[in-house]
Amino acid sequence: MESTCALCGVCICWESPERWLREFRAVYTHNRNWSDIKLSGVSIATEESFTAICPEDSDRKHDDEDLADDDTLYIGLGSANLRTRSTSGLQPLEFTGFGIHSACWNLLTRLFQPDLQLLFHACLSMPIGPRDTVDWGHDYNGAAFYSKGPVPEIDSYDPGTLARREDAAIFRSDPFDIPTLQRALKSIYQLESLSPPLDPPENKSDIFNSLPTEILHFIITSLLSTDVKHLREASRTFATLDLPEMFWSSRFGRGHEFHYVFESLANHPKSWRAFYIMLRMLDLSVPAFQNRRRVWSLALRLQSLHNQMIGVPCQGQSRATFFEPEGISSEDQQQWSTAGRAVRPPTTTPFNFGCLPLRSRQVTWYISGLRFVKEQGRDDFSGYIHPTTEEPICLPQPAEIREWCFGVDLRGIKAISLKTESGWNSPWVGELGTLPIHHQSTPRHLYVMRADFDTLKLVSISFEVQPDQDRQTLYRDAIF
Description:
Distance between the termini: 44 Å
Mean pLDDT: 81
Low-confidence stretches: 83-89, 189-198, 364-369
Number of strands: 26
Oligomer: single chain
Protein name: F-box domain-containing protein
Domain F-box: 205-251
Number of domains: 3
Helix content: 10-25%
Shape: globular
Structural class: alpha+beta
């Protein structure tokens, strides 16, 4: 079998000589039950099986002596990208999911405990390249690449190609279990200094001279190490200040250079300063450290995306989709004029670029946006609402919207502007950049608007076409 780790971007393949590259877990679902996502035990890639044979219990491993066949599941890794849900006549697999190296999963859970459903739904919303490479919009810090062509496609390196790269040792080194780090924790050498002593500048009017030591310590602890270096070069007070253990321990906190050394939290070194200096020397010479830093930064990105999804439901009246079949029937007599780009139907095989409308919401009003603020103070919502990041579109009074303008990329709608009957154009909300603009005319009396979403964002907007709508205005319903 061959797949790609959804976190680090390196291939999960039986040909890999390193054991950690063959061992993995699956985040999977049973019979397309999107609300019941589970984590498998630790499995290992084999040559014989196209699907992954995984322990059902997340606490079990493939090499447990008492592991029986009844304790395992056949999981199709990457099949959750909808490739098996096509009209090709293939029988959908009972268990489908995404693979993550066991070492990468251990690293991820040291940073945070992901909600399995949110993690699975996020993967489901992303295009999938060859070797089931999840396209998060980045190249996994060098572990994958985008093909050249009209539609760039993500792909991971096969083990043979990866082995021939000059930096192959980095990507093939276990990012979780680093023996060199374990030895460093057991034996910390009391090194004298991090750098040659500074020659304090002659500045008798140093404004920091009057501050108490506690305030000085607070300042340097709050700064990045590079900023501390510059501050000590510019200020005699800071140049002669002894850096306390509190400062050195802060270098292992979020936002600082050794945040990824999670072992420091469980094994507090006797000297944070000596531990920091030793790591500075190890970091440049040990490939596993560089891979740890690479994967940790990817885990931070995933955590940020995961946190955006927490507690933010897709609001509005649900319409039936492949992802949510329990909604109201989509087989209606209404005609829709839709703004979107590269919106792929669930039967797409393969889903290697663009976006999927996994959820569909319908809201009915007179004239509105995704949040319609009425004079009475009551709001109508459609989709995901993030109150702290909303940007209003303020219309002149009175005003009648006659045209919606959308900036659309291959992953969804990124910018919106409105045009009124009088010709007034609102400022763009969102990130338009150089995106193509979709002009969407609306009837004089708009009663129904439908918005489609994946599990993260808006991907298309449709307006009900009235029987008496002037067809000559439909020339504006296009991308320019």
